[in-house]
Amino acid sequence: MQINYCTQWSRHNNRPADSLTEDEARAAHEKGTLYTVLVGDRMRPDCFLEFTAFRCVGVEFLDAALRTYLDYTFQEKRPNELFISMSRRPQFPNDTDPPDRATVLFFKTDGQFKIERFKSNPDGIGSKRVGEESRVVDVTYN
What we know:
The chain is mainly beta. Helices cover 7% and strands 58% of the residues. The protein has one helix at 22-31, and strands at 3-10, 15-20, 35-40, 45-51, 56-62, 68-78, 81-91, 101-107, 112-120, 127-136. The longest helix has 10 residues, at 22-31. It starts with a strand and ends in a 6-residue tail after the last strand.
């Protein structure tokens, strides 16, 4: 498996910004500054992990058109322990267009769980919430 590092994956241009060496990525991690790990081909990764200054890790899985089809957000709630706080699944109408709807799952450490559904606006700018439900779940494995 090929691993590469960069300062950030450009979602607008679908390409890495400013390549980093493994040592530079490790230094960014230790300082708590933004860096990204690309898994797979550097220009066409299968997914990437984005480490932020807020002790957060975002994981995005990319399709053949380099669109995010699934992403997760993990937050460090305790030292060296990540908690999955959000998952988003956009849905695409075809192989080339942007998503026309999405489902977002939110988790809190106290077991609060919320599902929100969104639909793109007809003009293609932004989206509106079209559904929401909440309940309490076991988040032991999150």
